[in-house]
Amino acid sequence: MEAQARGLLETEPLQGRDEDTVASADFPSMLSEEEKEELKAELVQLEDEITTLRQVLSAKERHLVEIKQKLGMNLMNELKQNFSRSWHDVQTTTAYKKTHETLSHAGQKATAAFSNVGTAISKKFGDMSYSIRHSISMPAMRRK
């Protein structure tokens, strides 16, 4: 009896075989006419309450929109604020800070490397220019 009573008080959701058992049960034949009437009345009451709650929620949503309009708040402003807040949240994370630090360091190294390559290329062009000028001027000097 205790196992059966405990089964009625369980708060866990139904599992696969439990759902099959419930689906195959013939509840209407298990209920008395009085119980059926009580359940029908409860069903009508719940449907009425749900309708009322939907109406209240709809009225509150309209009121919310009116207040936002009076305050000059619109969807675009809210999106901007949400984006700004989210971006700030991302920037304050440890992962972002570490990534930013690493990429910044890598950028500095790349800049230094490009600078060195540029300097080397400039030097090579300078050397080539000197060599070309020198080779052009040498025959001219020999003719004299």
Automatic annotation (TrEMBL):
Domain of life of the native organism: Eukaryota
Keywords tagged on the record: Coiled coil
GO CC entries: cytoplasm
Region ranges (Disordered): 1-23
One record GO biological process: positive regulation of apoptotic signaling pathway
Family: Belongs to the TPD52 family.
Protein name as annotated: TPD52 like 1
